[in-house]
Specification:
Elements (H helix, E strand, L loop, with lengths): L7 E6 L8 H14 L3 E6 L36 E4 H6 L11 E4 L5 E4 L1 E4 L1 H9 L3 E4 L1
Parallel strand pairs: 1-2, 1-7, 2-3, 3-6
Antiparallel strand pairs: 4-5
C-alpha cells in the first residue's frame, strides 16, 4: 500500500503583472494546483510585488485586469502568501499598498485572517529550502 504524500509547492512571482504572460500564467497554475489539493504557497519578489498592489487599473494598456482573481486564493485554501520586504522597500511600497487577501480559518471559528506575510530575504530563503518544488515565474 502506497502512502499519499503531499508535496509542498512554492510559486515565486518575479515579474510585473502586465507586459508579459508570467503573472497571469502563475496565478492560473496556482489555482489549478490548489484545486488538486496540493500544498501551495506563493511568494512575490522583485517586480512581482506589483501583482498584489491594490487599485490596479489596466485602462491605459488595453488588457484585462486580472488582479481581482487574487481574492479567490483563500477560497482555494492558498493561505500562505509571502511578500519580500526588501522588494517592497526598493519600490517605495508598504504593506498598506497591497490588496487585503484573506481566508477563513476553520480552526478559529472561521475567523477571517490575512493570507499575506511580509518576510525578509533570509526568511524567504528558508521557506524555499522547506519546499519540495519551487517554480519561478
Amino acid at each position: 500500500m502506497t502512502e499519499n504524500v503531499t508535496k509542498k509547492f512554492l510559486y515565486v512571482n518575479r515579474k510585473a503583472p502586465y507586459g508579459t504572460i508570467y503573472a497571469l500564467e502563475s496565478l492560473e497554475v496556482v489555482l489549478i494546483g490548489a484545486a488538486f489539493e496540493q500544498d501551495v504557497s506563493v511568494a512575490f519578489i522583485d517586480d512581482g510585488v506589483y501583482q498584489l498592489k491594490k487599485d490596479q487599473s489596466t485602462d491605459g494598456i488595453g488588457m484585462k485586469n486580472f488582479s481581482p482573481t487574487y481574492n479567490a486564493l483563500g477560497d482555494y485554501e492558498v493561505t500562505q502568501i509571502y511578500v519580500d520586504k526588501e522588494s517592497l522597500d526598493e519600490r517605495g511600497l508598504t504593506a498598506d499598498d497591497l490588496m487585503n487577501l484573506v481566508y477563513e480559518d476553520e480552526d478559529d471559528d472561521y475567523a477571517e485572517k490575512s493570507s499575506i506575510s511580509i518576510v525578509n530575504r533570509d526568511e524567504l530563503a528558508k521557506l524555499m529550502e522547506q519546499q519540495d518544488v519551487v517554480l519561478s515565474f
